[in-house]
Amino acid sequence: MRKTTLKELPEERREYLRIEDVLDVEVERPDVDAPARTASSLDMSAGGIRLSGNQPVKRGDMVWTRFSVPTPEGDRVIESLCEVRWASEGDAESTNKYLFGVSFYDIEPSDRELLLRHVFSKHYGIERSAGPSVEATDLRGKNYGVESLRGVSLEVAAGESVALLGPAGAGKSTLIRILATSQKPTSGSAKVMGFDLATQKKEARQSIGYMPREDALYDKLTATENLRFFGRAHKLHGRRLADKIAEALAFTNLLEKAGEPVRKLSPGMRRRLSLACAIVHRPKLLLMDEPVDGAGPALREEFHNYLRQLKDIGVSIIMSTREAAEALESDRVVFMIDGRALADDSPENLMKLGFATVKLTVGGESREFRTQDYRTELPEALRGLGAEISRLEKVEICENTLDDIIRDHFLPGGDAE
Amino acid sequence: MTFSIIDNAVSIAKRIFKEIPRDRMSVPHLFIFPALAIYIVKIFADGISYADPADGLAPRETLAAGFACFVVHISAFGFCARVFVRERIGGALERVQAIGVSPASVVAGYVCGFAPFVLVQSLAVAAASALIFGVSFRGAAWAVPASAFLLGVVSVAMSMFTSGAARRGTEAFAAIPLILPPALLLGEVIFPLEALPAWLNALSYAFPMRYAIEPLNAAITCEMAGCPARDFFGLIVYGIAMFALATVFFRHREAAPRAVHRMSRKTDGG
Fold it and tell me: Which residues lie below 8 Å from residue A238, measured CB to CB, with a gap of 6+?
């Protein structure tokens, strides 16, 4: 019996997804009457999934596959009819000596996307380092001759997301551009993944994904062609590039639009493609300049999902925003104004600086009080009403938003002090 | 109704009367540009009367081949500026630069990317000048498309220099009228350079048409040198200089809009 090792397999077979890319798989012969709906193959350039088993199969066989893919809501089982595209015998001593590659023949598009997004995470391949992803010390920078960043220090841990929050002209974009190596600081120092941006820019750039405020895409090219261009600029080529493009498209839900020219995509799709271009080389640090400011709720929610998944993989994220609600989605909020960082804390701690206004309407009369912890103080206030509680008509609670807190505590003229 | 129209017209006229003296472009618009235009017409008239068909060049042939080159020059320059400015305004150039792609790579990429189109266009205009205008090339016929092609490639590098050095896209396009008409007038297409005042003759070295016309005329008049590289030497050196300038003065990001920039200076913000 001839042994076939993985290295002997032709490249297109080696590039098939491995069995360990999914949690669990069951393969069985299909019922002869199994309905075959429209054919839909896994367009990952390599074609499908590489499996191993203890039963011989041959090219052209149809098999049922059942995958278990983890989702935030729990494991999801995906079933699909697959066609065996190649088969060979592996290690004779192994219990699973038959190697074969299958392509999806019949799979729901949503299942295919879920599977690919899961594979995207599996293939991302970040080794979490103990050191910080970003260490910036006393950074100063200019924006066309005007000093827009005046001594900001920042440390970001691996897998941490940080929101730079502030109004226009706060220096957020200058800070992002300096970290993206698109602009040099006038003073101060910064390291990305331990590489000094002044002396080891080339090494640092391999770990950085940058999504500018504009879409930064080529309108005349298709989504795939844009990704190919940026991938090649990151020195990716051939099958490796093709796989990364397919996975990035799947991750951003753009597989169906892969061949569309960018000019025909909706603004939301363009933002998603811009994100795909920023992560096509699988960076460890993602820098985004106002990625969803002004966007609708659906796109925001999509981006929150993408960023959560990237964070879970271990990608550090720094994004700038002018909208406090966006900043609340991050692990940390750095509030910036006039080129300085005025606050750097978790959204929870910042929200504790706020208060709630509680308004009780008793017998047509309004009574208001402000409290930092209405959950404790409201029951006490209700108990304090005594017999009047029977005349209580309405309880209204108005909590401070992060915008209110920033206005009161950090902006000139705030009433916090 | 009539009163309202007149009233509004009067208030608008008053506003414009106040605005014009405060506009810093009003003096150039009202006085300098007309004077310049009159001077250019005078040079043109002098040049036309200076041209002598007896010097071996039929004006029709020179004009046809010269304009063919000029068409390639304008087209390559303008098209490249449009593509480059669009890339820069869209932010893609900043993303490319952040990846680590050098300005030299960008300029070289543009030059190489445009070259095949310039080649096709050069062959087309050379054929058109021969067929439509009936130009007969007594010298090396290949020198006409070769001149046009080299000029087109040099125009791409020149366009990268002017567009890349411009702070904003609007500045890049505003530079086009300052570059292309002088290139025609100072390029010996319409009349000989000897017809120009000395200072304009010296200025003509700054425009690539002058270097392209030399081998073109040589091709028409059968005076092409034994070594073609010698005839194209000026154009090649000019192209290398433009490439170097485009690399050095490369801006990958648009400047802030003028109003925002002024405001940010006042508030000292960023």
Answer: none
Best mutation target among A143, A173, A232 (most B Cβ atoms within 10 Å) is A143
A141 shares a domain with A103: no
In this prediction, residue A90 carries a pLDDT of 67
Span A68-95, average pLDDT: 75
Nearest Cα neighbor of A282 from A118, A124, A140 is A124
Residues B230-247: tens digit of each pLDDT: 678 889 999 999 999 999
Domain housing A25: 6-124
- Tell me if B22 is assigned to some domain: no
Total domains in the fold of chain B: 1
User: Which range of residues forms the domain containing residue B150?
Assistant: 60-254
Of A183, A176, A188, the closest CA to residue A285 belongs to A176
In this predicted model, which residue has the larger pLDDT, B58 or A302?
Answer: A302
Q: CA A72, A77, A81: angle at the middle one, nearest 5?
A: 140
CATH of the domain at A185: 3.40.50.300
Note whether A320 contacts B: Cβ–Cβ < 8 A.
no
For residue A148, what is the enclosing H or E element?
strand A146-156
Do residue A62 and residue A26 come from a single domain? yes
- Per CB-CB distance under 8 Å, the chain A contacts of B267 are 169
Residues A234 and A338 in one domain: yes
What was the pLDDT predicted at A128? 66
Q: Which residues of chain B have pLDDT under 50?
A: 259-270
CA gap A364, A342 in Å, rounded: 43
Q: What is the ipTM of this complex?
A: 0.77
CB contact under 8 A, B253 and A182: yes
Q: How far apart are CA B29 and CA A106, in angstroms?
A: 70
**In 3-state terms, what secondary structure has residue B188?**
coil
- Residue B159 in domain: yes
Q: B50: part of which helix (H) or strand (E)?
A: helix B33-50
SS3 state at A94: coil
The answer on pLDDT for A336 being more than 70 is: yes
Q: What gap in Å lies between CA A223 and CA A327, rounded to an integer?
A: 29
Mean per-residue pLDDT of chain A: 80
Q: How far apart (Å, rounded) are the C-alpha atoms in residues B116 and B9?
A: 55
User: Do A99 and A199 share a domain, yes or no?
Assistant: no
Question: Does residue A20 lie in a domain region?
Answer: yes
Does residue B102 sit at the A interface (CB-CB below 8 Å)?
A: no
How far is CA A81 from each of CA A29, A116, A264, rounded to the nearest angstrom? 9, 17, 34
The burial of A409, by beta-carbon neighbours within 10 Å (0-12 exposed, 13-18 middle, 19 or more buried), is given as: middle
Contact B90 A144 (CB under 8 A): no
Q: Is residue A414 part of a domain?
A: no
Domain endpoint, select from A347, A373, A408: A347
In a domain, B44, yes or no: no
Of B91, B100, B265, the CB nearest to A215: B91
- A60 is a domain residue: yes
Nearest to B94 among A147, A212, A219 (CB): A212
Alpha helix positions (H), A163-266: 172-179, 201-205, 223-233, 238-251
Q: Are A392 and A362 in contact (CB under 8 A)?
A: yes
The two three-digit tokens of residue B259, written as one number: 């109003």
Which chain A positions have a beta carbon within 8 Å of B269's beta carbon?
146, 148, 169-170, 338-339
Cβ(B149)–Cβ(B118) under 8 Å? yes
Q: Per the domain annotation, does A413 fall within a domain? A: no
Look at residue B200 and tell me if it is in a domain. yes
Average pLDDT over residues A134-162: 91
